[in-house]
Write a structure and sequence with these properties.
The strands form eight sheets. Strands 1-33-34-35-32-20-38-39-40-19 form a ten-stranded mixed sheet, with helices on both faces. The protein has a nine-stranded antiparallel sheet with strand order 22-21-31-30-29-28-27-26-25, sandwiched between helices. The two termini are 62 Å apart. 38% of the residues lie in helices and 15% in strands. The chain has 1468 residues and is α+β, with helices and mostly antiparallel strands.
C-alpha cells in the first residue's frame, strides 16, 4: 500500500486540477530546479505503483512459472531465437535432413537504393513517377504510328531516352558512392573461431539454389576476399609472426620458422587489474574500421590469461595464470575435446549467427554480440559508442557470469549452452535473453539473464580492454544499428511534387485544344460538296469522320506537345547538378581539421533547402563537442572563476552589449590571470602533474587563498579539492610513463567526472591512481593514501554519488556530490543557514550562465555507525527481490546530516559558432527542435538498475543548460516542462500548455502565408519534454495535441529520445495536420482537421542513432567528425560543423529555391535554363545580414499556384497579341512590299509572328548584363539564321529576308506586337518595385547604391566618395545592431491586439533615417545586382510573386518611414 505521506503529497493527489501542475519558468536556474522536481515527482509515482503492484501480487495466488514467464514475455513482434553453442538443436528446429530450419540474415549490409538487378526497374519507376515522363512516353509510342503524321517517329524517342539516361547516370553515381562505403565496411577484418569447431546454427550448405547451380561459394573453401585479407595482413606483419601482449599491453613480434603458424598470448587486464599506461588514444578512431595489424594466416592458437589485480605490476612480476577449474559456469573440465578449434581471420560479411568472435582493444564490433568473457579480472569491458550517439565517454559492459571463465579455444570446446534471445528490434537500450546450460558438476539445468549490459552493438568500438570473446546474436539487417537506419529513401523536392499538378493542368489545356481541333476537323470532314474533295483528295486516313477526328486529336497532341515542355526535367537536373557543384566548392563551408567541404549526396532536393521551417538536431557531437570545462566553483560561500560562458556571451549579444565581451580581449585577460594564478601557486608548492594548457578554472583568488596559511578560507579550499580528487570513479592513465612520468590523463564514463578530477589536479590535488592498498592523491605536493570502503553509485534516480573513505589518520568520512536539491534535502538540521543561502545563490548564478552545477558535501562517521550500516548495505546488495529499493533504503541511512563544502560549475563546450548560428536561424523564422538521446552513461546504473531504468541519456537539466548556452532557450521565454508517466497526465500537461499559450496569445492561426515567427506576441514559449512523456505524446490519441503545442513554440527540447522516436517526431511534423481547437482545449472539446501543414523539415546529426531521423526528414544533414561517418553516409548533405547550416540554408538554399521556382514558372511560359544556375537575386553577404528574407521560402511564396496561373495567363495573353496583331495587319493592310513582291503567303505571316514572339519572350526574362549578352545574342543568331535560310532553295521561303526585312510593315508589326505583349508585365513590375517593393528589392537597391556594402564593410567595385561623418563599419549592419527575438519580417500582418515583445529589434525611435541606411533620397530602383566584387550582374526578381509578403503602403514618402526598420529587422 502507498505510504500515508505519499498519499498526502499534493503532487500525487489526483483531485488537484492537472493544469496547475504545469509550471512555466524563465531563468535557467528555475528551469533546472523545476525539471529536477518533475523527475522526483515521477520517481515517487513510480515507486508508489511498484509498491502497490507488490502488495497486489502477494495477495494473489502464485502460478507456476513457465519458460515464457522466466524469459520475460517479449513485447517485440516476432519469434524468439535460440543460438546454440556445442548444444544439439531440438527436433522442432531441424528438418528431415537434420539441417536447421531457421535462416538468419547475412552480416553483409547495404545502404544503397539499388542493386545491379533492381537498378533499371527501380530507377525507371522513380522517374516515371513524374507525370510529364509518362506523358512523353505516351507521345513517343504514338509517334511510332505513321497514321498520326509524325515525320520521324523513331527519332522522337531520343529526347526522352536522353532525359532518362542522364537522370539514371546521376542516380547511379550517387548510389555507387554509397556502395563503395558499404563494401569498405563489409570487407573489414574480424577474428572468429573456426578450424574444427562447427557452428551448429548454420546449415552445412547455406547457399541459395542459384549459388549451387553456378557453383559459387562452396562451403569450406576460402573465398577470394578472405584470402586477400590474410595475404595482405601476412605481408604487412611478415611471415610467421607471434603476437604477445605483456602486462603493459605492448605488442611484441618475434619471428617464427614456420611461416603459417601464429600464436597469440593475451593476458587479462582491465578494471581490476589493468595498466592504463598502455591505453591507446581513442581519438584516432574512425568508421569504417581501419585495417587491423593482426596476422592469423593459417592455424592459430590463443591462450587468454587473467592479469593480477595490482594495477602497477611490472613485467617481472607477471606470470601466466592457470585455469582455476571453477565448478561454476558452463565449462566442463572433464569433457574430452579434439583441440582442433582455432582463431581465423575473416571478413565482417562472412559472420553468421552463432559464431564465436575474438575482439581486441580498439576493434570495432562487427555485429550484435553477447559478451562471454573478457580480459578483465572482473569480466568488464569498455565500449565507445561514438558511431551510435556521438559520445566519447566509455560505456562499461560485463561478461555473462556463467561464461566468464572462458580463456581459450579449448575452453569453448568444453562448453555446451544456448542463448534464448528475444527477436531483433530497434531499441538500442533494451535487450532480454537467457543463457541456459547444464551445470557440469550437479547436472542441473541453470539459466542466467542476459541484458543490454552484456550486449555489444555493431558499430561501437572496444576500448581499454585487451580482448573480448563474444557470441554473435544478430547480424546484418537484424542488428540494432541497421534497424534504426532503415532503407535509403528516394526523396523528391516539394517543387517537383507540385510540378505534377502544373503538368496535369497543362495537359488539361492541351487536351482541350486538341479536342476542339478534333471536333472541328471531324465536322469539316463530315461536310460534303466542299473544295476539300478536290484539293485534298485522298488525304484523310479513313472514310469515317469520327475516326479521322480521333486521328486529328492524336496528331494535335503530337503537334502541340511543347505546351508540356519535354526539356523541363532534364534542364532542372542540369541546374541542380551545377548548384550541387557550387555548394561543394564553397570555401566558407570547408572544415580544415577534417579536410572536408560540404558534400551534396542527393542533388535533386537543393531547392528544399530554401523552404525549411523546422530543424531537428541532435545535441551531443552536433551542437556540443562533448568536452567539459571546469569554469567556476563556490567554496564555503565564496565564488571563484573568471571565465565567460557561451550563455553569457549570448545574453550580452541579445542585450546589445557584445562589445563588452570581445573574445580577443577576454582571451588576453584570461591568459594574464592564469599566469598570475600559476605564478602564485608555483611559489607556494610544487605541482609536478600540472597541465597549464588544459587549466580552465582561472581564478587568482584561489591561488592566494590556498597559499595564505593564515587565511580562514584555506582549509575549506583544501577540503573541497580533496573531495574532488577522491569522490569519483575515474581511472588514471599515463600515456607515456617513461618519457613523461608526471603526465596523467583521466578516463571516465562521463566527461563531467574527468573534468572535475582534472581541475583538482591542476589546482594541486592530483589523483594518482588506485592500487590494492587504496587511492593515491597529492595535496599541494604532499602524497596521501586513502582507503575506499564503500561506493554508493550515481544513477539518474539518486542524482548523487557517495564514497565512504578512511583518511590517512584513520578517521571515516563520507563524501557526497550531486544535484543541489538532492544534497540540500540531506543537510544537517543545524547547518549554517548563511552558507546554504550563499551557495544556493552561487549555483543559481552558475546555472543562469549556462553551467552544469553539482553540490559537494561531507560528513564524519563513527566506526560503530559505519559497521552497523555496512551490514545493512551488504544485505540489501545481496537481496533477491526488490534489490534496488533495498539498496536505496540502505543508502538513505547514511546519506544524511551532510555539510556543504562547495559547488562546481562545468560548461559543456559548444561547437564553434553554434549560438550565432541558432540565433540567425531563429531570425530567419526557422523553428528548432532538439532531440537528445544517449546510451546509458552510468556504470553502476547498468550494474544494478532494471532494464526499464537504463535509458538515462541526457537529463532534463542537462538539456536545459545546453539550451541556454546555445541561445536555444532565452530568459524571455516561458519554458514549459512536460514530465509525466501516464497518458492522462501527459494529456493534462499538454492541454495546460495549450491553454497557457491561448490565454496569452489568443487562438493560433495556421495561414501558410503567416508561417515563421510572429511579432506582436506578449510572450514566447518553449517546451522541454522527456522520453517517457514523449512516448505518450506521440501516441495516436495525443500526437495531434502535442504537435499543436510544439508548433506554437519557438523551441522544443526532447530529452532521452530513442532513434525510433526521433524519426517518428520528424515524420509527424513533416506530415503534420494542423488542428483548430477551441479557446480552451479539453477532453470534451471536438478537434477537427483544418488543413495539412506539409511542413518542410531538416534533420542534422552525427551518430548512427540519428540516421533514422536524417532519412525521415525532407533534408538530412550528417556531420563528419571523430564520432564516425555513419550519419554522413546516410545523409543528403554532409559537412563538418553545425554553423555551416546557416550558409547552406540562407544563401545556397534560398538561391536554389529562387532559381528553381523561377525556372519552373518560366518554363511554362517559355523554355529557359541557360542562366538559371547563375541567378543571384541578392549577394551572399546580404542574405546572411538579413536572414529574415528566408521567410518567403518557409511560406512558399516564390512558387505558388497563383504564380503559375499568372504565368499561364500572361503567356496566353502574349500569344494572342503576337498572333492577332500580325493577323490584323495582314488582314487589313497592304500585302505588297517595297519591291512589289507580295507577302500574303503563310511563310511571311509565320515568320513575323515567330520573330515577334521570340522578341517578347527574350525581353520577358529580365534585364542584366548577362541577359543582354546571352538572350539577345541568341536573338541575333535567330535573325542571322533567318537570313541564311532564306537563300536556300526551298518551296516557300526563298528571298524572305529581302521581302520582309526591307519593308516597314514587318518591323513595325514585330515591335508593336512585342511592346503590347510586354506592356502589362513591365507596368506591374514598375508599380510593385516603386510602391510596394519586396524586401529583397530594397536590399538589392541598397546593395547597388553601395550603402549596404558600406554597412557590411565590403569594398566597392569603383571607389566611392563617402561624405564625412557617413562612414559605416561592420557593426552598423542590421544583424549586429541589436538583439533580435521576433522580427517584422516574420509575419505579413501585425496583430494590433498583441503587444510587441520587448526582445525584438526596434529601429530608431523617431522617423529619422538611421545613419548609413537607405533613405528616401535613394529613389532609383536597382536593375543590376553585383556580387561583392562588382563583377557579376544578376537578374531582378520576378514581380509575379504573391503580394502577401510586401511591405504595407510602400509609397515614395513611405520609403523614408520604413527605412529605420532595417536597423535589426526586415519588414516583410
Amino acid at each position: 500500500m502507498p505510504a500515508p505521506e505519499d498519499l498526502t503529497d499534493e503532487e500525487n493527489d489526483d483531485t488537484i486540477d492537472p493544469e496547475l501542475r504545469l509550471r512555466t519558468v524563465r531563468t535557467a536556474a528555475s528551469a533546472i530546479a523545476e525539471s529536477i522536481k518533475s523527475e522526483q515527482r515521477a520517481e515517487r509515482r513510480k515507486s508508489i505503483r511498484a509498491r502497490s503492484r507488490f502488495f497486489r501480487r502477494n495477495t494473489t495466488s502464485k502460478r507456476p512459472q513457465t519458460a515464457t514467464t522466466e524469459a520475460g514475455p517479449s513485447k517485440v513482434p516476432g519469434a524468439r531465437r535460440n543460438v546454440y553453442v556445442n548444444y544439439p538443436l531440438s527436433a522442432m528446429e531441424v528438418d528431415q535432413n537434420g539441417e536447421p530450419v531457421v535462416r538468419y540474415q547475412r552480416n553483409k549490409v547495404r545502404t544503397t537504393k539499388y542493386t545491379i538487378l533492381t537498378f533499371l526497374p527501380k530507377n525507371l519507376y522513380e522517374q516515371f513517377r513524374r507525370v510529364a515522363n509518362l506523358f512523353f512516353l505516351s507521345l513517343v509510342v504514338l509517334q511510332l504510328f505513321t497514321v498520326f503524321g509524325a515525320p520521324s517517329g523513331s527519332i522522337s524517342v531520343l529526347p526522352l531516352a536522353f532525359i532518362l539516361a542522364v537522370t539514371a547516370i546521376k542516380d547511379g553515381v550517387e548510389d555507387y558512392r554509397r556502395g563503395k562505403l558499404d563494401e569498405e565496411v563489409n570487407t573489414s577484418a574480424v577474428t572468429k573461431l573456426a578450424g574444427g569447431w562447427v557452428n551448429v546454427n548454420q546449415p552445412t550448405d547455406p547457399r541459395s539454389w542459384i549459388e549451387r547451380l553456378l557453383g559459387l561459394n562452396t562451403p569450406g573453401r576460402v573465398s577470394k576476399g578472405v584470402r586477400k585479407l590474410r595475404d595482405r595482413e601476412a605481408g604487412q606483419a611478415g611471415a610467421g609472426i607471434k603476437v604477445m601482449l605483456d602486462k603493459a599491453g605492448e605488442s611484441r613480434a618475434s619471428f617464427q620458422t614456420a611461416p603459417d603458424v601464429s600464436s597469440i598470448d593475451l593476458p587479462r587486464r582491465g578494471a581490476g587489474g589493468r595498466r592504463l599506461e598502455d591505453i591507446q588514444s581513442i581519438d584516432s578512431h574512425s568508421y569504417p574500421p581501419p585495417e587491423a595489424s593482426f596476422s592469423s594466416k593459417g592455424d592459430s592458437s590463443t591462450t587468454l590469461a587473467k592479469a593480477p589485480s595490482d594495477q602497477f605490476a611490472s613485467m617481472s612480476q607477471y606470470q601466466h595464470s592457470i585455469h582455476s577449474q571453477s565448478t561454476v559456469g558452463v565449462i566442463d573440465w572433464q569433457k574430452r575435446i579434439g583441440g582442433s578449434a582455432r582463431w581465423e581471420r575473416t571478413l565482417w560479411k562472412k559472420l553468421e549467427v552463432g559464431d564465436i568472435v575474438l575482439l581486441r582493444d580498439n576493434d570495432q564490433v562487427p555485429a550484435d554480440i553477447v559478451v562471454l568473457s573478457t580480459s578483465d579480472a572482473d569480466s568488464m569491458c569498455y565500449l565507445e559508442t561514438k558511431n551510435l550517439d556521438g559520445e566519447t565517454n566509455l560505456k562499461p559492459r560485463k561478461a555473462v557470469k556463467g561464461t566468464s571463465a572462458i580463456q581459450s579455444e579449448e575452453d569453448i570446446e568444453r562448453t555446451a549452452f544456448y542463448l534464448d534471445s528475444e527477436p531483433p528490434h530497434q531499441n538500442l537500450y533494451l535487450y532480454h535473453g537467457i543463457l541456459r546450460y547444464r551445470d557440469p558438476a550437479t547436472e542441473e539445468q541453470k539459466a542466467e539473464s542476459v541484458t543490454i549490459n552484456e550486449l555489444l552493438l555493431r558499430g561501437c568500438a572496444i576500448r581499454n580492454t585487451s580482448w573480448v570473446i563474444g557470441l554473435v546474436v544478430f547480424t546484418g539487417a537484424d542488428t540494432k544499428i541497421m534497424l534504426n537506419g532503415g532503407d535509403t529513401p528516394s526523396k523528391r523536392s516539394k517543387i517537383e511534387r507540385e510540378t505534377n499538378f502544373n503538368v496535369l493542368v497543362n495537359f488539361g489545356v492541351l487536351t482541350a485544344m486538341c479536342l476542339i481541333s478534333a471536333i472541328f476537323s471531324g465536322l469539316a470532314d463530315a461536310q460534303t460538296g466542299t473544295s476539300t474533295s478536290f484539293f485534298e483528295e485522298n488525304t484523310e486516313p479513313t472514310d469515317s469522320p469520327v475516326i479521322n477526328a480521333i486521328v486529328t486529336f492524336v496528331s494535335c497532341l503530337i503537334a502541340f506537345q511543347n505546351i508540356v515542355p519535354i526539356s523541363l526535367y532534364i534542364s532542372i537536373e542540369i541546374v541542380k547538378t551545377i548548384q550541387a557543384f557550387f555548394i561543394s566548392q564553397d570555401v566558407d563551408m570547408y572544415y580544415q581539421p577534417f579536410d572536408t567541404p560540404c558534400i551534396p549526396k542527393t542533388w535533386n532536393i537543393s531547392d528544399d533547402l530554401g523552404q525549411i521551417e523546422y530543424v531537428f538536431s541532435d545535441k551531443t557531437g552536433t551542437l556540443t563537442q562533448n568536452v567539459m570545462e571546469f569554469q567556476k566553483c563556490s567554496v564555503h560561500g565564496i565564488a571563484y572563476g573568471e571565465g565567460i560562458t557561451e550563455a553569457q556571451r549570448g545574453a550580452a549579444t541579445r542585450e546589445g552589449k557584445a562589445d563588452t565581451l570581445d573574445p580577443a580581449e577576454l582571451s588576453e585577460k584570461l591568459a594574464t590571470l592564469k599566469h598570475q594564478m600559476l605564478t602564485t601557486m608555483e611559489r607556494a608548492f610544487k605541482n609536478r602533474y600540472l597541465q597549464p594548457e588544459k587549466m580552465t578554472l582561472v581564478s587568482p583568488q584561489i591561488a592566494e587563498d590556498l597559499t595564505n596559511r593564515t587565511a580562514d578560507q584555506r582549509p575549506h579550499l583544501i577540503a573541497f579539492f580533496r573531495a574532488l580528487a577522491i569522490c569519483h570513479s575515474v581511472l588514471a592513465d599515463k600515456p607515456d610513463a617513461q618519457a613523461e612520468p608526471y603526465h596523467i590523463e583521466y578516463k571516465a564514463e562521463s566527461p563531467d567526472e574527468a573534468a572535475l578530477v582534472a581541475a583538482a589536479r591542476d589546482a594541486g590535488f592530483p589523483f594518482l591512481g588506485k592500487t590494492k592498498e587504496g587511492i593515491d592523491i597529492e595535496v599541494m605536493g604532499q602524497r596521501e593514501k586513502w582507503t575506499p570502503l564503500k561506493v554508493l553509485e550515481f544513477n539518474s534516480t539518486r542524482k548523487r554519488m557517495s564514497v565512504v573513505m578512511r583518511n590517512p589518520e584513520g578517521r571515516l568520512i563520507l563524501y557526497c556530490k550531486g544535484a543541489d536539491s538532492v544534497i540540500y534535502e540531506r543537510l544537517a538540521k543545524d547547518h549554517d543557514p548563511v552558507l546554504k543561502e550563499k551557495t544556493s545563490k552561487d549555483m543559481e548564478m552558475f546555472a543562469n550562465n549556462g553551467l552544469r552545477t553539482l553540490c559537494i558535501a561531507y560528513r564524519w562517521l563513527d566506526e560503530d555507525e559505519y559497521m552497523s550500516w555496512s551490514k545493512k548495505f551488504d544485505d540489501a546488495a545481496n537481496s533477491i527481490e526488490h534489490r534496488d529499493e533495498e539498496i536505496d533504503k540502505a543508502n538513505e541511512l547514511i546519506e544524511h546530516s551532510l555539510h556543504i563544502l562547495g559547488a562546481t560549475a562545468l560548461e559543456d563546450k559548444l561547437q564553434e559558432g553554434v549560438p550565432e548560428a541558432i540565433e540567425t536561424l531563429h531570425q530567419a523564422g526557422i523553428k528548432l527542435w532538439i532531440l537528445t538521446g544517449a546510451m546509458p552513461t552510468s556504470h553502476f546504473a547498468m550494474l544494478y538498475n532494471k532494464e526499464a531504468d537504463l535509458v538515462t541519456g541526457d537529463k532534463l537539466q542537462t538539456a536545459i543548460e545546453i539550451g541556454f548556452s546555445c541561445n536555444l532557450l532565452k530568459n524571455t521565454m516561458d519554458i514549459m516542462i512536460l514530465s509525466a508517466d501516464s497518458m492522462e497526465q501527459t494529456r493534462s500537461q499538454i492541454e495546460g500548455g495549450l491553454n497557457k499559450i491561448a490565454s496569452v496569445l489568443g487562438p493560433p492561426t495556421w495561414d501558410p502565408r503567416k508561417r515563421g515567427f510572429f511579432p506582436g506576441a506578449k510572450a514566447s514559449f518553449a517546451v522541454v519534454i522527456d522520453g517517457d512523456t514523449l512516448r505518450h505524446a506521440l501516441s495516436p490519441e495525443l500526437k495531434e495535441l502535442f504537435l499543436n503545442l510544439g508548433t506554437q513554440c519557438e523551441t522544443v527540447v526532447c530529452c532521452r529520445v530513442s532513434p525510433a522516436q526521433k524519426a517518428l517526431t520528424v515524420k509527424l511534423v513533416r506530415l503534420l495536420k494542423i488542428f483548430s481547437p477551441s479557446v480552451k482545449v479539453g477532453a470534451d472539446n471536438h478537434i477537427k482537421v483544418k488543413e495539412g501543414r506539409n511542413a518542410m523539415t531538416l534533420s542534422i546529426g552525427d551518430g548512427a542513432n540519428d540516421v533514422a531521423m536524417i532519412q525521415e526528414a525532407n533534408i538530412g544533414i550528417g556531420l563528419f567528425g571523430l564520432e564516425g561517418s555513419q550519419a554522413a553516409m546516410s545523409a543528403d548533405y554532409a559537412f563538418g560543423q553545425f554553423r555551416f547550416l546557416t550558409k547552406l540554408l540562407l544563401v545556397h538554399g534560398r538561391w536554389s529555391y529562387q532559381r528553381i521556382a523561377d525556372m519552373h514558372s518560366n518554363f511554362f511560359y517559355k523554355v529557359r535554363s541557360v542562366l538559371v544556375p547563375f541567378d543571384q537575386d541578392i549577394n551572399a553577404k546580404a542574405a546572411l545580414a538579413f536572414p529574415q528574407l528566408y521567410v518567403r521560402g518557409i511560406r512558399g511564396l516564390e512558387y505558388t499556384r497563383s504564380k503559375f496561373w499568372f504565368y499561364m495567363l500572361d503567356g496566353l495573353y502574349q500569344s494572342a497579341v503576337v498572333f492577332f496583331f500580325p493577323y490584323l495587319v495582314w488582314s487589313f493592310g497592304l500585302q505588297v512590299t517595297w519591291n512589289g513582291k507580295g507577302i500574303e503567303s503563310l511563310s511571311e505571316f509565320g515568320t513575323t509572328v515567330a520573330v515577334a514572339a521570340i522578341f517578347a519572350a527574350n525581353s520577358y526574362v529580365g534585364w542584366t548584363v548577362i541577359t543582354w549578352v546571352v538572350v539577345f545574342g541568341s536573338t541575333i543568331v535567330m535573325m542571322l539564321w533567318t537570313v541564311i535560310y532564306s537563300f536556300f532553295l526551298t518551296k516557300d521561303f526563298v528571298d524572305e529576308v529581302i521581302i520582309l526585312f526591307g519593308g516597314i510593315t514587318f518591323w513595325a508589326t514585330v515591335l508593336l506586337s512585342a511592346s503590347v505583349a510586354l506592356a502589362p508585365r513591365f507596368i506591374v513590375k514598375f508599380f510593385t518595385t516603386v510602391y510596394t517593393p519586396l524586401d529583397k528589392d530594397i536590399v538589392r537597391e541598397m546593395w547597388v547604391k553601395g550603402d549596404l556594402k558600406d554597412q557590411l564593410g565590403l569594398k566597392h567595385r569603383r571607389a566611392k566618395k563617402i561624405p564625412k561623418g557617413k562612414q559605416s563599419t561592420l557593426e552598423a549592419a542590421p544583424m549586429f545592431q541589436e538583439q533580435h527575438n521576433r522580427s517584422l519580417s516574420e509575419v505579413s500582418i501585425i496583430h494590433d491586439r498583441y503587444e510587441p515583445t520587448m526582445t525584438s529589434s526596434p529601429g530608431p525611435k523617431d522617423n529619422t533615417p538611421a545613419e548609413g541606411y537607405w533613405t528616401a533620397d535613394d529613389e532609383s530602383a536597382a536593375s543590376v545586382h553585383l556580387d561583392e566584387h562588382g563583377d557579376r550582374p544578376h537578374r531582378n526578381s520576378d514581380p509575379a510573386s504573391d503580394d502577401d509578403d510586401r511591405t504595407i503602403g510602400h509609397s515614395d514618402s513611405h520609403r523614408q518611414s520604413i527605412a529605420p526598420s532595417w536597423n535589426g529587422s526586415v519588414a516583410m
